[in-house]
Amino acid sequence: MALAAAAALTLMPLMLRIARTSVLLFASLCSGVTLAQTATTSPQKPSRAVESVRPLKQVKEDAARLDAMLDRSLQRRQETPLPIVDDSTFVRRAYLTIVGRIPTLAEAEAFLADQAPDKRDSLSDRLLDSAGHTSHFSNFWFDQLRVKSRQQNLSGEPFAHFVRESVHQDKPYDQFVREMLAAEGPGHRQGNGATGMLLRDMNMPHDAMANALRLFLGTRMECAQCHNHPFDHWTQKEFFEMAAFFGGIRYRDENALPNLVGLRTELAAAPERVRQQAQNLVRRMNQGLDGTGNGVEKLPADYKYDDAKPGSPVMADTIFGSQVKLKYPDGKKAATPRERPRDRQRGGNAAPEVGSRRSLGEWMTSKKNPQFAKVIANRMWARTFGAGLVDPIDDWKKDTAAVHPELMGAIEKLMLELDFDLRQFERVLVHTQLFQRQTPTADATAGEAFTFRGPVLRRMTAEQMWDSLLTLVFADIDERLRSPDEQAKPVYQQFDSLIKADAKELIAMVEERRGAAMPPRQADQKQKEEMRQQLASDKELQQKAQPLLRELSQARRDGDQRKVAKIADELERLGLPLGQRAGRGREGDLVRASDLQQPAPANHLLRQFGQSDRETVDGASAAATVPQVLTLLNGFLDQRVLEGQSALRADLETAPNGERRVRIAFLTTLNREPSAEEAQDWRKSIAIHGEAVIKDLVWVLCNSNEFRFVR
Questions:
Q1: Which end of the chain, N or C, is surrounded by fewer C-beta atoms within 10 Å?
Q2: Of 569, 589, 609, which one is at a domain's C-terminal end?
Q3: Residues ≥6 apart with Cβ < 8 Å to 559
Q4: Cβ atoms 216, 177 nearer than 8 A
Q5: Residues 6+ positions from 290 with CB-CB distance below 8 Å
Q6: How close are the terminal C-alpha atoms of the chain, in Å?
Q7: Is there a domain that residue 431 lies in?
Q8: What is d(CA 185, CA 153) in angstroms, rounded to the nearest whole number?
Q9: Domain that residue 7 falls in
Q10: How many angstroms separate the CA atoms of 165 and 193, rounded?
Q11: Hey, CA dihedral for 539, 544, 547, 550, is it positive or negative?
């Protein structure tokens, strides 16, 4: 890594300018920048401070115990911990790990100038208490839970809201999981986002069970859906006994819209297009979860093993740990599910409901469950340090052993003692000495476990890359974070309006929506015409507004989005709102990854850098590709950072001299001071080629391995 970064920094600035303008890929990425801040206090700031829950002294004692166990284990392996990193490396690592972005120029300089002996502890806690932590941790769960903003006709925004709000409120992990496994009701109703996990595998309860076992218990049973597991001891019958906990689940709540009596009659008289849209709307609003679970599932007709007959019913049973005793009604314990394939949506199984889904959640999240606490503890360890003590993190077998068994037992115990408070657990990890150690410079030997002499050297995730690039554009991207329910509000509002509507009102609402639909350009023209008429009828308003409108036109021509936003606010105070699209630009394009569409579109920078398509659990990729390089070379950097009205460009333009500009470039992108040699080389280049060289410097730094990796 160091050699590659050093080689990049020695390239000639003039050649870089030529190379930088030679490729024009992704020229339209995220057009319409605005620099207006959206709030003074972010609505995603955690609801309570970490220190109010647990004193730092106790946290540091826990961290010291983990460090001592690791040191003893390394000593037995005849290995020594790596040295502690310098402040520049630590501040960058802390921001990327805890809040998912690099620090700003001001944040980096403030930390480096701070002489307090406990400044690293203070920084870690401050970041854990920031809105950026909510955003970054939400990204983690979006990936694990395969959150998608749109899944066929179902909106995923209520599910995303549930995840954000759970992180924001420090919901204990066991409660978080129980709520998702037992959720019922319409998927689009406010307060019902927890249904999103099982709706993510709509009409596929067996897949839902396989994903839940993999994610929450680190157990891969998907192969056992069709036959006894070829590489583990799980049998097909055991899989169906687990699947029986989801027996009887239905994916439509027919009672979601109770007032639509006579809808068929009204639809028969409506135009074809209105009829289709009304039917689609009702179908979408009815989607949800119904049925608490009957604890019964039927073996497949081609079942070929001797322990049961093909097509016979099996009762819900756990694969390890304590048994769950469901209260089946007398005489109905072995009721056979109906045969018709569509019964699962219509009322499904003949067996009565026994609350098996809730019972599954209670068993799975119990402190006595042999897997639940250790799997999430190991997953959080891997998230913080780059690899798990048990690897892979989601395929535990009977003979699975941790690289440091005593340490694995300790973090499992800590998770239980903290009652599954994941932010407090993460707090202990980032206060360890391990978190402050250097990363190994040599790759691990193939087939050998990573031993944690220091954290793993790893490339930024796609979300860290995107949010770090936004940090170069905006002075404070965390203040731009939206309310956790912002994207879900339209879904809730539509459901609330429909739940109160009768059949005639539904038809009227559909017709009104069709009439109100208008392309953006037409909407802008209508807005301008309304403003013109308002000005014509109010001479005093006209006198006040005309100078501002002229300034607005000039600011737009100059590309000065700060001024555009300021003038738009002044016009709004006069009673002439420009609207979000006209006055503020397309802000939705340049917000943190957690506030964007989930996942981002296929050609977005996030997807280029490996964001998961959300089809599989933990599906993100950290592999390097050529399109990634080209995206950075001539996409985002040129248009948004170097040529746009970015925070970095403003800092560079107001710097008093070339020396300060070089320092700003390094401190903003790599969060460290330039070495004496680097400073001398770039100041010399500026003297020869002029101030434009500073753009080449930023371009080189952002395309170096030192920028792309979490060191």
A1: N
A2: 589
A3: 644, 645
A4: yes
A5: 184, 185, 249, 250, 251, 252, 253, 254
A6: 10
A7: no
A8: 16
A9: 2-32+624-710
A10: 10
A11: negative
Q: What pLDDT band is residue 564 in, cutting at 50, 70 and 90?
A: low
Q: How many domains does the chain have?
A: 2
Q: Does 408 reside within a domain?
A: no
Please name the residue that has the structure tokens 């019913």: 313
Paired tokens of 257: 């819209």
Q: Residue 677 and residue 680: Cα distance in Å, rounded?
A: 5
Long-range contacts, 332-335 (Cβ 8 Å, 24+): 334/296, 335/294, 335/296
Tokens of 673: 């001071």
- Does one domain contain both 580 and 632? no
Determine the pLDDT at residue 32. Answer: 33
Chain position carrying tokens 């801040």: 37
- How many alpha carbons lie under 13 Å from residue 423 in its C-beta half-sphere? 31
590-609 as b/e, with b when 16 or more CB fall inside 10 Å?
bbbbbbbbbbbeeebbbbbb
Q: 628 and 706: one domain? A: yes
Please give the pLDDT value at position 645: 84
Q: What is the pLDDT of residues 629-646, one digit of tens each?
A: 777 765 678 888 888 789
Reported confidence tier of residue 348, pLDDT bands at 50, 70, 90:
very low
Query: What is the spatial distance between Cα 625 and Cα 708, in angstroms, rounded to a whole number?
Result: 13
> What is d(CA 415, CA 317) in angstroms, rounded to the nearest whole number?
26
Q: How far is CA 366 from CA 54, 324, 416, in A?
A: 23, 12, 10
218, 382 in Cβ contact below 8 A?
no
Of 119-123, 347-351, 627-631, the least confident: 347-351
Q: Is the pLDDT of residue 212 over 60?
A: yes
Asked whether residue 95 is assigned to any structural domain, the reply reads no
* Distance (Å, whole) CA 547 – CA 278: 48
CB 384 within 8 A of CB 289: no
Diameter over CA atoms, the chain: 92
With cut-offs at 50, 70 and 90, classify the pLDDT of residue 553.
low
Say if CB 460 and CB 708 are below 8 A apart: yes
Q: What are phi and psi of 95, to 5 degrees?
A: -65, -45
